């Protein structure tokens, strides 16, 4: 059941579902749902579609107004995560061209793992936050294949190319050398909020209920 809130707009009482009310304040929630018939939580196609649609809508409402994305996600599909990334962030790393112009802040609540941590790091520099008890996890992409040996080789090549691309993007946003990213990504690497800040995934650890009050 989706909670409903009552707001007073120009003296008129109006009812909103909580997510629409948050969207009016330019807040996007990226809480990964459970995929139907799956035991794992994922950043699924529905979530990617919803988040990208909300970002594009907010862009149309005000190109210079900041957007906040609150993340509590165990990750999931690389392609869907990259769809969100390409909408919110740098389209051309060299030219710093962006698909949308709004400055985007990212906030980790609870957990940002796998593609969740990737998108957390992709917020605008100086506007990436984590709550004090948040957990962040990074690792290399994984996948599976079956069939003929040639088909398996094609999938393996694609996974390796994807890993290289993700490592370069992580390096760009964290300031870490690609070699260091490769080392950390070799296995699941968990970080607390302060460790994520030190690594460059976030810029601030929030100690109050304000995203503009960082822990120095």
UniProtKB/TrEMBL annotation:
<dbReference type="InterPro" id="IPR033135">
    <property type="entry name" value="ClpP_His_AS"/>
</dbReference>
<keyword id="KW-0378">Hydrolase</keyword>
<comment type="similarity">
    <text>Belongs to the peptidase S14 family.</text>
</comment>
<dbReference type="InterPro" id="IPR029045">
    <property type="entry name" value="ClpP/crotonase-like_dom_sf"/>
</dbReference>
<feature type="active site">
    <location>
        <position position="139"/>
    </location>
</feature>
<dbReference type="GO" id="GO:0004176">
    <property type="term" value="F:ATP-dependent peptidase activity"/>
</dbReference>
<dbReference type="InterPro" id="IPR018215">
    <property type="entry name" value="ClpP_Ser_AS"/>
</dbReference>
<dbReference type="InterPro" id="IPR001907">
    <property type="entry name" value="ClpP"/>
</dbReference>
<dbReference type="GO" id="GO:0006515">
    <property type="term" value="P:protein quality control for misfolded or incompletely synthesized proteins"/>
</dbReference>
<protein>
    <recommendedName>
        <fullName>ATP-dependent Clp protease proteolytic subunit</fullName>
        <ecNumber>3.4.21.92</ecNumber>
    </recommendedName>
</protein>
<dbReference type="GO" id="GO:0009368">
    <property type="term" value="C:endopeptidase Clp complex"/>
</dbReference>
<feature type="active site">
    <location>
        <position position="114"/>
    </location>
</feature>
<dbReference type="InterPro" id="IPR023562">
    <property type="entry name" value="ClpP/TepA"/>
</dbReference>
<dbReference type="Pfam" id="PF00574">
    <property type="entry name" value="CLP_protease"/>
</dbReference>
<keyword id="KW-0720">Serine protease</keyword>
<dbReference type="GO" id="GO:0051117">
    <property type="term" value="F:ATPase binding"/>
</dbReference>
<dbReference type="GO" id="GO:0004252">
    <property type="term" value="F:serine-type endopeptidase activity"/>
</dbReference>
<keyword id="KW-0645">Protease</keyword>
